[in-house]
Specification:
CATH topology: Fumarylacetoacetate hydrolase, domain 2
Number of helices: 5
Number of strands: 13
Helix content: 10-25%
Shape: globular
Structural class: alpha+beta
Strand content: 35-45%
CATH architecture: Alpha-Beta Complex
Order of helices and strands: HHEEEEEHEHEEEHEEEE
Distance between the termini: 32 Å
Number of domains: 1
């Protein structure tokens, strides 16, 4: 019955239905959360309502920190993960909502963490990683102010994730310092941003450490094969249908996608 549905569930279902229908939301569908705890309760309800396999998690930076956290997390669903190959990956966004592309290192967990363990070091987290790929996260939400209204609102709609383009694996990642790898993102051939992960808190492995602790506290199991999109290296860059996005990592790795309207 309607009276038995919580506010968190109503908000979650509004976002899930908007995503399924591909239409925008002119306003936040309820009372916007102001704490991360409330936001993750909405996210949990939305994951349940979506009913799709979660195969990864995006991690993003919160600045300044909220509720003592410098990062946030959101689910990545199996149907929205695309392997970049010879053909240009088509990645849909919400034309009436928010849309952006982010160059990111994608780390894959190949060893399951100890159940219930909530304290990790970056070195311990790194030991669970079996692969590092280059990639692009597609950040998109039916709600245009998903980022402008603050981290709690971002968290509530899947952390603003709408897809992942998985590029080539970096075979020698164990022997190099990812923080020294230059990263650039181009839109329609024009360089929009450039940076390294040295500017991102404690880097990609710090993002893995955060997710291990975060998932344990939420009772989420991270299984072998789980992807972690570790944060926007060059920034969050707005895109629209028709744009061509290219991310460059070092001198030998590129990944591309074409933005389409959902």
């Amino acid at each position: 019955m309607e009276g038995d549905v919580s506010d968190a569930e109503r908000i979650a279902h509004a976002f899930v239905e908007a995503r399924r229908a591909g239409h925008g939301l002119a306003r936040y569908p309820g009372t916007a959360p102001t704490t991360l705890g409330a936001a993750y309760r909405i996210q949990d309800a939305a994951i349940a309502a979506a009913g799709e396999p979660v195969v990864g998690w995006k991690v993003g930076k919160i600045a300044p920190p909220v509720d003592g956290s410098e990062r946030l997390a959101g689910p990545i669903f199996a149907p929205h993960v695309v392997a970049a190959g010879d053909r240009l990956a088509a990645m849909p966004v919400f034309a009436d909502g928010f849309a952006a592309a982010e160059a990111e290192f994608l780390l894959r967990i190949d060893t399951a963490p100890e159940p219930g363990r909530i304290d990790w070091t970056n070195a311990d987290a790194r030991a669970l990683v079996g692969a590092v790929h280059v990639g692009i996260e597609i950040a998109s939400s039916p709600y245009p102010r998903i980022n402008a209204d603050g981290p709690a609102v971002t968290v509530s709609d899947f952390g603003n994730n709408n897809g992942l383009v998985v590029g080539r694996a970096i075979d020698d990642w164990r022997d190099i310092d990812l923080d020294t790898c230059p990263v650039a993102l181009l839109i329609n051939g024009e360089q929009i941003g450039a940076a390294t992960t040295a500017t991102m808190l404690d880097g990609p492995f710090g993002a893995v450490r955060f997710l291990l602790e975060h998932a344990a506290r939420r009772g989420i199991a991270l299984t072998p094969g789980t992807w972690i999109s570790t944060g926007a290296v060059t920034g969050v860059h707005p895109v629209a249908a028709g744009d061509l996005v290219e991310a460059r990592f070092g001198t030998g790795y590129t990944v591309h996608c074409a933005i389409t309207a959902r």
